[in-house]
Amino acid sequence: MFQRSWLKASCLTACVGLMSSMANAGEIQVLSAVVKGKTIPDATVTWQRTGESSVKVNTDAKGTAGFTQFKDDPDTTMLIEKEGYSTLVVKCPCEGFTYALSPEMPNLDGLRVVLTWGSSPSDLDSHMVFPDNHVFFSSKEGDQTHLDVDDTTSYGPETITVVKKKQGERYVYMVRDYSNGERQQSRALSASNARVDVYVGKTHIRSYKVRNDVKANSWVVFGIDGNGAFHDINQYLSLTRTAELNNHLAGILKADSFESHSMITDTMIAQAKRMNTAGEKAYQNKDYLAAMYHFQDAVNLYPDFSQAYSNLGVTYPKLDRRAEALWANRKAIELASGNRADRIKASSYYNIGRIYEASSEWQSALENFEAAQRLREHSAYQKGISRMKEKLHIQ
Question: Is the pLDDT of residue 59 over 70?
C-alpha cells in the first residue's frame, strides 16, 4: 500500500457535512476543479427536461443552488456555466454530489481530468502515467503535468492538469480506490458513482462513468496515443501492491495499442446515431452550440463514431475552439479507414496545421502540413509548407 497523510482540511470536512444535508434539501454544490475547497458563487445552473421550460438558478456565496421543479432522473440534464470556466453538462440524477468547474485552458495541447464521486468510499485517487512520469498523490508534479487537488474525504474533486502534452508520447489515466486498496473483491469503487470529466481548451469534451456491476479497486479509464487521440480503455481490475500497479500501467504504455474493454451495445450505437442526426440538423440551422452538445453526447455513447468526430471537427472552429478542434481532428485521423482514409487523414492534418499556424506555432504547423502532403498532393498543403518554411527561415 502507498503511504500517505490522512490529515483532512477543515474546509473539506465542512463541505462533507454540507453535502450530507443536501440530499434532503434538493441542492447541489459547485467547487473549483483546481483550488482545494474553493466554492464557485454566481455560477448559472440550468436544469432542462424535454418538453418543459428550463429552470435557471445562480449559486450562492457557498456555491450551492437548490432545485425542486424537475425530477432528479436521467431525463433531466444539468448545465453549470460561469465566465472563464468550461461549461459542465451532466445527465442526472444530480443531487448529493459536488460538481467541479474547470478554468479555461490556454494551451492548444493541454487537458484537465477531474474525478468526482459520492459519499463512499472516502478516498479515490487519480493516476496519470507517461514515460518517466507517474503523477498521483505522492508525486504531485511531473513534466508539465501536476495534481491540482487531492481529496481524501469523499465527493472530490481530484484533478490532474496536463499543461502541455508531450508530442509523440502516450498517456494513461487510472482511478484507484485507495480506501479499499487491499480488498480484491470490493464493490465500493463500482458503487461510488465516480465520474471522470475531461476538458480541453474551454470545453468539456468527454465524460466517463464507473460501471456499477464489478468487483475491483482499480479502473483504467482512458489512454492518449502519441498523436494526441483519446482511446477508451475502461478496464477494471484489483491491484493490491505498488509494484503491481506500476507494472500494469507500464505495460499499457508499452503495448502496441490501447485495448478497449468498453461495452458498446447496438442500442447505444443507435442512440448515438440519433444524437448525431440531431446535431447535424442543429448545425444546418447554425445553432453550433447545440450541435456541439449533440455530437459530444454521440461520442460519449459510441467512442468510435467517426462521423460524429468529423462533425465536431467542423463545429468547434465555428465556436472559436481551436484546442478542441485539434482533439477532434486527431481522433478523426485515428479512426479513418476504407478507400477515403488517406483523403480524410490528409484533410485532418491540414486542419491541425492551420490551427497551429493561427497560434504562431510554426514548427508544429509545418509538421502537420507535411504529413498532409505525404498522404495526398494538394496545392493548399504545399502552400502551407511554403508559408511555414518562410516563417522558420528554412530553405
Answer: yes
